[in-house]
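Hello,

Our lab assistant flagged a job as stuck in the queue for most of the afternoon. It eventually completed. Since we weren't sure the result was trustworthy after the delay, we are filing this so someone can double-check. Below is the sequence as submitted and the structure that was eventually returned. Let us know if re-running is recommended.
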Amino acid sequence: MTQMNEKSDVYSFGVVLLEVITGKPAISRSRTESVLLSDQIGSMLANGDIKCSVDQRLGDRFEVGSAWKITEIALASASESSEQRPTMSQAVMELKQSVFGRMTDRSNHKDPVRRVTMNLDTEMVPRAR
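-- returned structure --
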């Protein structure tokens, strides 16, 4: 029996993040096999294909660099090996850098999109069960 710990929560977080990014379920089932979303996305990224990984309903309305980084964080979090997974604090910190770093870059280029600041603290990170 597998014991639940922080790394288990990180795995679950990575799977949910992949579902959000792709708009697809965590497991695709056919009559002959079940395929994990993390395996599908890992293959697409290995081929350099981020656009097919992102939820098709977004069209081209997403930042490619942010999509790459967020997907990489999700895949690392959903790694089969718990030793290769980041801590939840590391994953949140990297996500914040990816999202808010891009927002800062845009505001420095006088983008008409208004910058919204959120006081996200790693203390808000869920604790392991």
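-- support follow-up --
The delay was a queue issue, not a problem with the job. The result is valid. Confidence is low (pLDDT under 50) at residues 111-120. Residues 88-108 form the longest helix (21 residues).
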